[in-house]
Write a sequence for this structure.
């Protein structure tokens, strides 16, 4: 009984039935939101990839994010610092210093990185509410210059805001560094077999410090991006989000045991996490438990798939050798 | 000459004593306990006690634990009992945890008032709170209806889905919307989403609301964390959506100036401290027992009536919310 009038192109369903939320996200301009919301995590993922590659981990990144954002925001609020570029450089510097401390304690001090970065995350976050920094207050939009608030959101290139381009830049630089530089390759060497790398003359401790410094620097940069994007920062900002960064890396196929992982995988993982964060609210469930539930299931599936694929690959290897 | 001088001095002394004696709170000491030391909100509350102390002539001490804990508050209260205060005004970190120590104080003849955050009914003489849940809910609804010109879609962005205060306010908003009142006839309420009192979650939920409802006109945000996140999201999206809610003035100044919020609300901690002082003095002097139905003269706030609270105790509502608008927000920025 279908009349001609009722026949519509298939994509019109996507546009008209906005209650088909996932499709709506795919079809609509929500992709821009996915990319925007995922940019900050994407930048931190690049640093996290470096530490995961050497078989280490850093859970102090969001504490560094909040601290770097608070310090830079305070300096801008009191009028000491007005330049947008200097804000970003300051954030990177603060992050790099804390990351380097993590790295030194982990490599030369031979303390497990989980414990080192757990401690620094407590210490760094506890500094934020001290009276010389934020006290009981937070950084709010009135304390930031208009130029800084506009810098990442209201300037765009090829339809994408600078926020996204900044993440792209960090991804490209990290990708080139890991793939085409000797130091970058050394990260893989240290992570897959530190003893072998050392015998080959790789300065493993220096590589470890470097990896943590990079991770800290990306977290510091993320703090300034956060401040420019949300125009607010406080003691609890991004609390607990470091797990999403690690989850994005694992989803992207990075081995937490070190030595294996690609930047392309991490990009896909980070976009997936951002997609879940932006898509679930569209479904109108309005409950964060669902978001976390789906993230958890996805992580498990990703890891199981990894393990299964690896087993199949090993079996095929054995079969080929006719054992 | 000396005699004249002595006479003048004596008369001055007599008159000044008489002047002091006229003040109702003379000789009364109040111990004020708040949730956490160094919190700007409670510093404003103490300002209210100071104002009342000038008018009534009582003395007061104030303290709060560094860590916002109940046991820290218990230590402070025990210290006040030992010092022999006449009344305690407590903003409790936990309504149940302080009941025992409060009853210990009451056995020692001390009047116990909770303000801002209650001590359970069995441990207090009176609770002083800013406004009833109904007033808080309906004030926000009326404000957004005004802001959007009486018609269009509205949504609510709340804190946690389990937050008792927020859920109560929202239930009164929904009740008002369903009451058939003429002024809500053209308002379409699309629902409540939950930002979990997290900035990014609130931001993402707002993005989704804006995407899902292209004709959305207003959002009510009955939680201080959500307010700035919702406004920033609307500002970035460049949408013409109005916001109201319970917010801090310092968080919202930017967005009130930008016209995203015409008016937001929060109760005034100064008035809370002020009213608590009056209640404490009246209780100590025995002019007032804090029973349901009694009334109390509260200086410049006028006459307030004691009503029965949900937990069966008695409660004094100021029934007044402070509003922050483009004209008034600047005066509040440093306080809230």
């Amino acid at each position: 009984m279908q009349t001609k009038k009722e026949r519509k192109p298939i994509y019109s369903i996507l546009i008209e039935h906005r209650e088909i939320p996932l499709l709506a996200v795919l079809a609509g301009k929500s992709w821009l939101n996915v990319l925007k919301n995922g940019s900050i995590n994407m930048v931190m993922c690049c640093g996290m990839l470096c530490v995961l590659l050497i078989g280490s981990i850093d859970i102090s990144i969001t504490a560094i994010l909040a601290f770097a954002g608070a310090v830079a925001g305070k300096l801008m609020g009191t009028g000491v610092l007005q330049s947008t570029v200097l804000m970003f450089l300051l954030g990177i510097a603060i992050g790099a210093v804390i990351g380097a401390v993590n790295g030194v304690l982990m490599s030369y001090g031979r303390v497990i990185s989980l414990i080192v970065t757990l401690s620094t995350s407590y210490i760094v976050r506890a500094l934020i509410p001290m009276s010389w920094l934020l006290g009981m207050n937070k950084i709010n939009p009135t304390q930031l210059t208009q130029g800084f608030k506009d810098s990442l959101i209201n300037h765009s290139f090829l339809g994408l805001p600078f926020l996204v381009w900044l993440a792209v830049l960090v991804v490209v630089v990290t990708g080139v560094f890991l793939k085409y530089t000797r130091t970058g390759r050394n990260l893989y060497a240290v992570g897959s077999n530190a003893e072998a790398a050392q015998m080959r003359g790789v300065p493993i401790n220096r590589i470890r410090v470097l990896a943590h410094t990079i991770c800290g620097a990306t977290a510091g940069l993320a703090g300034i991006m956060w401040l420019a994007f949300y125009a607010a920062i406080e003691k609890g900002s991004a609390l607990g989000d470091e797990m999403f960064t690690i989850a994005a890396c694992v989803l992207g196929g990075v081995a937490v045991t070190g030595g294996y992982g690609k930047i392309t995988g991490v990009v896909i993982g980070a976009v997936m996490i951002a997609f879940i964060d932006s898509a679930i609210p569209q479904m109108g469930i309005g409950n964060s438990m669902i978001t976390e539930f789906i993230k958890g299931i996805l992580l498990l599936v990703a890891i199981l798939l990894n393990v299964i694929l690896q087993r199949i690959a090993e079996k095929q290897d054995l079969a080929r050798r006719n054992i | 000459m000396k005699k004249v001088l002595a006479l003048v001095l004596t008369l001055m002394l007599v008159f000044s004593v008489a002047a002091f004696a006229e003040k109702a709170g003379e000789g009364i000491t109040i111990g004020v306990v708040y949730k956490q030391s160094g919190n700007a909100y409670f510093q404003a509350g103490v300002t209210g006690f100071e104002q009342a102390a000038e008018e009534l002539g009582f003395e007061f001490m104030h303290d709060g634990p560094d860590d916002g804990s109940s046991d820290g508050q218990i230590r402070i209260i025990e210290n006040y009992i030992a010092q022999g205060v006449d009344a305690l005004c407590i903003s409790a970190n936990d309504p149940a945890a302080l009941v025992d120590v409060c009853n210990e104080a009451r056995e020692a003849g001390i009047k116990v008032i909770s303000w801002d955050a209650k001590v359970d009914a069995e441990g207090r003489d009176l609770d002083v709170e800013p406004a009833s849940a109904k007033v808080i809910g309906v004030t926000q609804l009326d404000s957004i209806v005004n802001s959007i010109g009486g018609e269009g879609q509205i949504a609510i962005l709340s804190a946690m889905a389990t937050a008792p205060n927020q859920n109560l306010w929202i239930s009164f908003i929904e009740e008002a919307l369903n009451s058939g009142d003429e002024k809500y006839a053209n308002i379409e309420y699309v629902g409540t989403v939950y930002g979990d009192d997290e900035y990014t979650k609130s931001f993402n939920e707002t993005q989704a609301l804006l995407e899902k409802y292209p004709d959305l006109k207003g959002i009510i945000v009955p939680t201080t964390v959500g307010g700035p996140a919702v406004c920033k999201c609307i500002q970035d999206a460049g949408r013409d959506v109005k916001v109201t809610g319970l917010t801090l003035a310092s968080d919202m100044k930017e967005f009130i100036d930008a016209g995203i919020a015409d008016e937001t609300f929060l109760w005034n901690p100064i008035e809370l401290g002020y009213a608590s002082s009056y209640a404490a003095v009246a209780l100590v002097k025995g002019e007032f027992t804090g029973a349901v139905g009694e009334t109390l003269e509260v200086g410049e706030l006028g006459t307030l009536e004691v009503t029965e609270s949900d937990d069966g105790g008695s409660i004094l509502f100021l029934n007044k919310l402070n509003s922050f608008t483009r004209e008034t927000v600047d005066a509040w920025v440093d306080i809230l």
Residues 38-239 of chain A form one domain. Residues 103 and 209 of chain A are 4 Å apart (CA to CA). Chain A touches chain B through 31 residues (CB under 8 Å).
